[in-house]
Amino acid sequence: MTVNPTPASATPEGGHLLELRDLHVEFRTNEGVARVINGVSYHLDAGETLAVLGESGSGKSVTAQAIMGILDTPPAFVRSGQILYQGEDLLTRSEEQRRQVRGKEIAMIFQDALSALNPVFPVGWQIGETLRQRAGMSRADARRRAVELMDLVKIPGAAKRIGDYPHQFSGGMRQRVMIAMALALDPKVLIADEPTTALDVTVQAQIMDLLADLRRELNMAMILITHDLGVVAGVADRIAVMYAGRIVEHADVRSLYKAPAHPYTKGLLESIPRLDVRGQELSTIKGLPPNLMRIPSGCPFHPRCPYVQQVCVDEVPHDLVLGDGRTSACHFAQEVRDDSVAR
Amino acid sequence: MTASPANPTKVRGETILSVDNLVKHFPITQGVLFQRQIGAVKAVDGVSFELRRGETLGVVGESGCGKSTLARLLMRLETPTSGRATLEGKDLFKASGGELRRLRRNMQMVMQDPYTSLNPRMTVGDIIGEPFEIHPDAAPKGSKAKRVQELLDLVGLNPEHINRYPHQFSGGQRQRIGIARALALKPEVIVCDEPVSALDVSIQAQVINLLKQLQGELGLSYIFIAHDLSVVRHIADRVAVMYLGRIVEIGTEDEIYERATHPYTQALLSAVPVPDPEARDQRNMIRLVGDVPSPADPPSGCHFRTRCWKAQEVCAVEDPATVPRAADPHPSACHFAELRPTPA
Residue A197 and residue A321: Cα distance in Å, rounded? Predict the structure, then answer.
């Protein structure tokens, strides 16, 4: 076992498509400084799906906003770190240069499609707006392309519905409109922030299928931000688990579900009710996620951890490399994984 | 523990709440001065079921299927268009005055959103103690504070926090406050409307365990409304599946999850993401096309027929009754009810 503070897997020729290096973001509020992201590093290669999993307040959405450059500043400030897109650090670019990246290179879809769409313009106009502004298309061309995009995301009767307003669409259809907008400029990276959380389960399945198909057809890379372990298991290649603004475990999705190597991941997997198993009592993670203004010393998970020892209170654990490109930020990662296998 | 069932001699398993053909149509009106009704949203459209003492009846369905309206009807927060419901033999919708107050004491509700269902200007003690103001006979004079502290202890909160405000608690703790408030009057039936859907996974498990533990200790009966089928399987003894205002299938947890005969139930179950990447390519999913139709204009005959792959002409004409079917002896509202073939 080696101690390695940088991401585990080797950098391919020419570098990763997108790479975060030791990103720190804090929120400066009147009550104090909340350390929302504390050294997040991950990477994404062309054509793959990375799931970023975490509970509310874990920093998963703020990381995405930092990549997009849409953090609310103030109160949010990027304190340090790098966001490398095709080898270039986005954080050193000007706002105008970042705007060129947004949408064209990296696009994002949001959880709540109703509030992300403008209620007073037809959806076709909203999809076309990007094309007119950014691709310099004429009104007629933009409209034609908007219909194509609506067809691409399988909105029935696209040509007829192009003049409809967001409230005339169902939740699932609105999310499709959002996806069409995100795809308008042919991005290489799509960030999906809880794309199905607000949807019903049958519609959720439709949207996840659509995203997987589009990712394959258009050869995009996707970052899927979610709290749902079931959704992750269905589509992701790799998974990064976040807790209190850090990535506590990073692994390919199959080995992570088979044998989690961080007590938090292990606790999460054990605490979800399963459709195929009717248990008597769910195991729980005791306590609550930390207040980000007062993150516990050492390992931030130590007050809730069943494996806690003195070293966890005193020392921040480094990412332990466990082989197969897996890392776990736990002093006892090996033991946790062995326990998980034995389970 | 002082909070014990109101009357321990009552038999577990007997029917405590019986609902018969309950209907709630919300009128759609047009015109400002001379309003006329131009239609109705059929939120609940003929729902019948029984709840037995000490059991949990799960109610599942997608948004718009009428499950929350059902909860509000049972709590008498809405007046039904027609139908009957009896709680321990007494008619819920005919009761008024003192009788209604007594009935209400026996049936309480836990709301979905712990952030908006607690008054931010009231202390936890006032919130949990408020039922005692309305029903002074529930707590003898001077014992209110003690009773509130007992309730806090019962739901796993620190009794010393009685003077704190809701914003000082996390989401999971707030939901515990909501549960304590529902328990204050020692009800026998609790209607839980999506009690864990606003909570994070690790907190959700804590609240589900609490609900189960309280049921064991206090002999409560739950109507547990949720859209998450995994959660419902975990807590429910029997499950009712709703679609567009109707119960399309009802049965024991095993009958619904292992031997569902209604195509909607089968599709709903197959769409639930399973947290196991190994199952990714082996699952035999039923993909429903389209969305739930509007409850203001439901399809004729079987409401599900527009999304159903088994639909035939008879489905458009004849409304299938929720009755036991040949495929499996639990009620299912499908002309072509059959067990799902096991994948080869």
Answer: 32
